[in-house]
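User: Here's a protein and a ligand (heme C). What would the complex look like?
Assistant: Let me lay out the input and then the predicted complex.
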Amino acid sequence: MKALYMTMAVLAVSLAACGHKEGPKGSVSFAAQVKPILDRNCVECHKAGGEGYLKSGLRLDSYQALMAGTKFGPVIVPGSSISSSLYLLVAGKADPSIRMPHNKAALPEDTVEMIKRWIDQGAQNN
Ligand code: HEC
């Protein structure tokens, strides 16, 4: 019995150390979950000829364009949402004047959280 408790304690500690509080929800899919958000909220400005593209060089109409970033560099750092300007902008953690989507209501919190998880999981084209 004592050994069982010990095993359970070790298990609990290693689960906690893992840091993924939502393990059961599984991985976020770019095609099924992230792309539809970009299409709905961002692409109108971040496509060839759009206002966001003209100002920053960022297109958000494909995975490749998203990962290519702005004319100044990447907006996604795979595995690190807090280093990814795209996340910081949609989460409102950057200067409020450039919160994205520009001049519109902020994305819902669970949507922002999903983008964060996708980046932290490696920002894959999955
Ligand atoms: C109404 C138009 C519009 C919409 C919608 C929009 N953007 Fe933008 N976006 C802009 C403009 C304009 C800029 C350039 C901002 C500037 O430099 O003043 C920009 C710049 C950016 C940048 C680059 C900022 C930098 O580092 O220079 C990112 C990242 C970005 N947008 C992400 C997004 C995301 C993600 C969405 C959707 C959730 C979105 N945008 C929706 C207009 C828009």
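Summary: The radius of gyration is 18 Å.
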